[in-house]
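Notes from hallway chat w/ T.B., transcribed later so I don't forget. T.B. wanted the structure written out for a chain they're using in a teaching module, and asked if we could keep both sequence and structure tokens in one place. Agreed to drop them here.
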Amino acid sequence: MEKYFSLEDIPQIKKSILTIGTFDGLHRGHQEILKHLVLLGQGKAIDSIVVTFDPHPRQVLSNENILLIQSLEQKLSIFEELQVNIVIIIPFTREFSDLSADTFLDTIVMPKLNPEHIVLGYNHHFGKNREGSPIFMENYCKEHNIGLDIINPVSDEGNKISSTGIRKLITNGFVRRASFELGRVFGFNTRVVHGKGRGHLLNYPTANIVPIEKNQLLPKPGVYLTRGRVNGHQLYGMCNFGVRPTFSEDELIMEVHFFNPEITDLYQHKVYIEFLERIRDEKKFKSEDDLKKQLIKDEILCKNLQKKYMQT
């Protein structure tokens, strides 16, 4: 898969099958768009191209600190898995946001990418004031003799799958449902850092992890069954994400106890962590002994739940 990270780097393409979008989270609805795009490209023997943006447009336009369901690195990896030929990542700036939909298409998309066919989501908008709507695109493509497919939403129990909905599921702790709507287990890349060693004192040594993506969306605090990937190993474990109230601390900490006893020193290693299921809220215990008893119960529950994931 070819990747281009600036407008200047975009090569001259003779013909293309094209889609445009932020693809926030790259959920199952987005994947339907991309599968359709790739199949069209393969059927016509024409390159399939994704035009996307970084950073998230809302981070620029609203000055919000938009937390990301996935990093750009994760997004590119999924594009490649879906067999997209070319991805163009346009740096999204205030100046770029002032381009009208017409100008964007006439000065960048048409002369550089020569789309024969365009595939868009049912609610996708682009250009200044979001004027590049599906209706706008129907008129534009008709005028320029370009094929156009508008892909309908994918629904989950009657609800349209959306990035906004998935964000709410994750921040409310419903990670299993979020993973279903994403089409993959919710997770992200982390790095192991030094902790206070409390896990060792409780006979549950943990790896303290921090997300590599600084704007990473995090799940609701609590205890989770997790699956980690490190150095080619797949490791199940349990993760506590919270402030460790039993020890009267107030800093949010993410720490994972892996069930594999052979995995010891992970300091400074990268770990891809997946949140499989939330098993309980974080709570304050009267003593360390009470906490140890709960950890034993948590481990039993997590190992029982783990069995169904090992069978898939």
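Follow-up for T.B.: The chain has a mean pLDDT of 91. Might be a good example for the class.
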